[in-house]
Automatic annotation (TrEMBL), chain A:
GO cellular component: RNA polymerase I complex; RNA polymerase II, core complex; RNA polymerase III complex
Organism: Podospora anserina (strain S / ATCC MYA-4624 / DSM 980 / FGSC 10383) (Pleurage anserina)
Protein name in UniProt: DNA-directed RNA polymerases I, II, and III subunit RPABC1
Gene Ontology BP terms: transcription elongation by RNA polymerase I; transcription initiation at RNA polymerase II promoter; tRNA transcription by RNA polymerase III
Record-annotated RNA polymerase subunit H/Rpb5 C-terminal domain positions: 162-234
GO MF entry, a single one: DNA-directed RNA polymerase activity
UniProtKB/TrEMBL annotation, chain B:
Record-stated family: Belongs to the RPAP2 family.
Biological role stated in the UniProt entry: Putative RNA polymerase II subunit B1 C-terminal domain (CTD) phosphatase involved in RNA polymerase II transcription regulation.
Disordered: region residues: 1-24, 184-217, 233-298
PANTHER family linked to this entry: RNA POLYMERASE II SUBUNIT B1 CTD PHOSPHATASE RPAP2-RELATED
Biological source species: Podospora anserina (strain S / ATCC MYA-4624 / DSM 980 / FGSC 10383)
Compartments (UniProt record): Nucleus
Basic and acidic residues composition bias: residue spans: 195-205
The protein's Enzyme Commission number: 3.1.3.16
Taxonomic placement: Eukaryota, Fungi, Dikarya, Ascomycota, Pezizomycotina
Acidic residues compositional bias, start-end: 275-284
Protein name: RNA polymerase II subunit B1 CTD phosphatase RPAP2 homolog
Signal as UniProt keyword: no
């Protein structure tokens, strides 16, 4: 990660920041279980520049969007166990759509609505909008209202400059499937409210796109116990 | 309670008899006062959130013409009373997102100053705040509405008996705070000038009553005391005062304060025998001490 200050292009700093956000969002999507090619995730800065900048070196965010399909293991994890009434349940995940918002001053209702509509029209199950600036209060409201149909998430480019899960003090978080969660509660004879909690707005919860009621397994490396697992319920 | 045959015996003090069927009030667990408060709140404070469609309506391509048409104005005025102050700020935000002036009746693009702050005639202002509007005039008009939402005055609106926030739009050439202040300072209240209007009359009346009050306080309207000031004739150069023998003579000079002797006749200076005196030397408070002493006036 080298910021080329010396080259003199005023857009260089922005492009390199954007490249880091691009990389983090790809890692994030991959960590959630979607299929992404390795070379897409680990795209070098030179190639990124070649692909996504205009002639004058300014980034072209509108062509940076991408979609990803869930992997087989992810589909398995997100498929509820079959019941008598529903012997062949549909998985609760689908293709994800990621878009970089070119808007640089402010993001209002109209921009958000357009994004939501695009996701709905192409029947994406989830959508992530990466923005350079914060959303307006009402645009945020549009996001939460529509999230019942399509799961819409928003990230600031600024928040994606580093991948927080790569920090040495952040333990591994693994999302449990519905069956795993039931098994856990059964084994420890717990009600789900008796589990420790993690907030939905927690940076890691946002990274993994946790929904209310999901449980993560947190694996810490311990000097005395080797590996130590704890569980948290997303609230 | 009639409905339950054998109510468990209470160890608490006897409660006043409860009505047979719990009212809706009791079921919600609210006291009557709370319920009443809630009712007024529901009429004033607790408003449902403004739907996103309204924001869109009032931000995108609104008003449709410049100057705004009468229908646009009445549309805005019909929506505004439902806004909370923060929602109104959201509306300004939303309009700014579309690059229009924050004032809902202005369709001009907003200003686009650069930098962090800007020096204006009124002082230093954040560009962030300045860029919300197309002009200072619009900023005044826009915040005029915000103030009315923050400190609402309610009016009864229509058939349903709801309370509605009263909103007034700022006129184009309405005087600002400064002008009003200036005008008020220019007013004269002494009631001397001839072209006295009603206000002047009121002031005059007040003055008269204040005079009456003063007389009453000073004691039953006593006539004024005649005071004549005369000059004291000086025949010889002034000399320093000397002590007469009645005041103790020269030997007590060190005990004299401005011609009076402290602790004369019947009272010993150390105050041991003072009848009814509770002060001893430990808690010597000068003011009390002086008050209690006989100043030895002739
Ligand atoms: Zn304006």
């Amino acid at each position: 990660m080298s910021d080329d200050f010396g080259s003199g292009n005023i857009h260089d700093k922005e492009v390199s920041r954007l490249w880091r956000a691009w990389r983090t969002i790809h890692e994030m999507v991959a960590d959630r279980g979607y299929e992404l090619a390795e070379e897409e995730i680990k795209m070098p800065l030179d190639e990124f520049k070649r692909k996504f900048t205009n002639g004058d070196g300014s980034p072209n965010r509108s062509i940076m969007s991408f979609s990803a399909r869930p992997s087989a293991s992810m589909i398995k994890k997100f498929t509820p166990p079959p019941t008598a009434s529903n012997p062949d349940p549909a998985p609760e995940c689908g293709t994800i759509w990621v878009e970089f918002c070119p808007e640089k001053t402010s993001i209002g209702i109209s921009v958000m609505k357009k994004f939501v509509e695009h996701c709905a029209n192409n029947s994406y199950k989830a959508g992530i909008l990466v923005t350079a600036v914060a959303l307006s209060a009402q645009a945020r409201k549009v996001m939460t209202v529509t999230s019942q149909y399509t799961l819409i998430e928003c990230f600031l480019e600024e928040d994606l400059l580093v991948n927080i899960t790569h920090h040495e003090l952040v333990p591994t978080h693994i999302l449990l499937s519905r069956e795993e969660k039931m098994a856990l509660l059964k084994r420890y004879r717990l009600k789900e409210t008796q589990l420790p909690r993690i907030l939905q707005k927690d940076p890691i919860a946002r990274y993994l796109g946790l929904k209310r009621g999901q449980v993560v397994k947190i694996v810490r490396i311990s000097e005395t116990a080797g590996r130590y697992a704890s569980y948290r319920l997303c609230v | 309670m009639a409905s339950t045959p054998n109510p468990p015996k209470s160890i608490l003090k006897k409660q006043p008899p409860t009505p047979d069927a719990p009212s809706a009030l009791e079921l919600t667990g609210l006291t009557r006062a709370q319920a009443a408060q809630l009712l007024t709140l529901s009429k004033t404070e607790l408003k449902p959130p403004i739907p996103i469609e309204t924001f869109e309506l009032l931000s995108a391509a609104f008003p449709s013409s410049q100057p705004p048409s009468q229908s646009d104005i009445s549309l805005l005025l019909s929506h505004l009373p439902n806004f909370s102050p923060s929602e109104y700020l959201d509306l300004i935000d939303e309009r700014n997102c579309l690059n229009t002036c924050g004032y809902a009746l202005c369709s001009k693009p907003r200003r686009n100053f650069t930098g962090k702050v800007k020096i204006r005639r009124s002082g230093v202002a954040k560009t962030e705040d300045l860029n919300k509007w197309c002009s200072d005039e619009c900023a005044l008009k826009g915040m005029y509405i915000h103030v009315q939402l923050e400190h609402p005055s309610y009016e009864w609106a229509g058939e349903k008996g709801e309370m509605k926030v009263k909103i007034r739009l700022r006129e184009d050439k309405e005087p600002g705070v400064k002008e009003v202040k200036k005008a008020v300072e220019g007013l004269s209240l002494d009631g001397a000038d001839d072209e006295r209007d009603k206000k002047g009359d009121e002031a005059h009346e007040k003055k008269k009553q204040a005079g009456k009050l003063a007389v009453e306080r000073n004691g039953m309207g006593v006539d004024k005391v005649e005071v004549t000031i005369g000059e004291k004739e000086i025949t010889q150069p002034p000399t320093a005062p000397t002590f007469t023998s009645a005041q103790g003579g020269e030997s007590d000079a060190h005990l004299m304060v401005e011609g009076y002797k402290i602790g004369s006749k019947g009272k010993k200076p150390n105050n041991t025998g003072g009848e009814g005196e509770d002060d001893d030397d430990d808690d010597f408070i000068p003011s009390i001490r002086i008050e209690s002493l006989n100043y030895g006036r002739p």
